[in-house]
Amino acid sequence: MTFLSNNIAKAVEFLKQEDVVAIPTETVYGLAGNIFSEKAVKKIFELKQRPFFNPLIVHLSGVDQLHKVVEYVPEEAKLLAERFWPGPLTLILKKRPEVPDLVTSGKDTVAVRVPKHPVALELLGKLDFPLAAPSANPFGSISPTESSHVANYFNGKLSMVLEGGTCKRGIESTIVGFENGKAVLYRLGSITVEEITALIGEIQVKNKKEAAPDAPGMLSRHYAPLTTTVVVDDVSKFIADLPDQRIGVLLFQNTVEAPNIKAQKILSRQGNLEEAASRLYAALHQLDKQELDIIVAERFPDVGMGKAINDRLKRATQK
Ligand code: AMP
Ligand code: MG
């Protein structure tokens, strides 16, 4: 049995013993381990069945810990960290030699962030090492935004899931790196392109695998339900051609009526993109359990958090 608890001291104990614990963050739940423990980091990769070429994000208790893992911080990175930490922004920076190759997949850079979740921050504050913490799901599947999602994935295989409620943001962090001193966005996420642009000006977006060999984990299939999933502009029109199918629909704001719809998820009745993002993965988890022939998702407006939602939906459709 996996141990679901809100006992932070117990989690500290497991982590000090080089074990892996699932922890809540404001983005999604993570599988956390001491970055300096080969045993813990290997267990993370094994549990997730994640390929070793896919580097991990290092979670710090505060910006004051940054110098322990990175060599230097460009001016724009300082601005970004000041504005968005604690928060869902990951920075790729030149690593210090102490950071193990296993964590960075042998790269000379390391991905870092300070999470904005009271439980994660309290936990990190009680440890004298940072935590590697990729999402607590098997590689490629839907990310967990509730402790029950983690327990379903890893029941019996994980010593502890630290309870932290539903993740407020619900979509992974935005990843920003630097090429020739210029900021580049590698993964759309919970901090919007617009927010970053407002702070440091236009930023190049290299969110596709082909465009971003420097962000090796950006696989086209990711965050995917087992059920076949499609994204369309007009859900009513699309499902009219599928009369004999058991259909699940995933919609932004408005209901769609049709006899072949067996399950329906509306992500934000008020049309709020942040709310929709926070509920996206839980809706996919629920639809995926309902023995449907197909999940038909509506394309979101391509602004703000809508960009990250569309990105995740697109990756959910790849085979
Ligand atoms: P996650 O799976 O949410 O923990 O995010 C990890 C992702 O961060 C990886 O799949 C990469 O795309 C990116 N990443 C982590 N470390 C690096 C790095 N050193 N250089 C470039 N991208 C990185
Ligand atoms: Mg992940």
**What is the CATH class of the largest domain?**
Alpha Beta
Can you list the strand order of the major beta sheet?
1-8-2-3-7-4-6-5-9-10-11
**Low confidence ranges:** none
Structural class: alpha/beta
Number of separate strands:
15
User: For the residues shown, what is the average pLDDT?
Assistant: 95
Span of the ends, CA to CA: 32 Å
Radius of gyration: 19 Å
Describe it.
It is a single chain. The protein is of the alpha/beta class and 319 residues long. The chain folds into two domains: 3-205, DHBP synthase; 229-317, Threonylcarbamoyl-AMP synthase, C-terminal domain (Rossmann fold). The chain contains ten helices and 15 strands. It has helices at residues 8-16, 38-48, 75-84, 101-104, 118-125, 147-154, 193-200, 235-240, 273-288, 305-317, and strands spanning 3-5, 21-23, 30-34, 57-59, 89-94, 109-113, 131-132, 160-162, 174-179, 182-187, 204-205, 229-232, 247-251, 261-266, 294-298. An eleven-stranded mixed sheet has the order 1-8-2-3-7-4-6-5-9-10-11, sandwiched between helices. α9 runs parallel beside α10. Bound molecules: adenosine monophosphate and magnesium ion. Adenosine monophosphate binds next to β6 and β9.
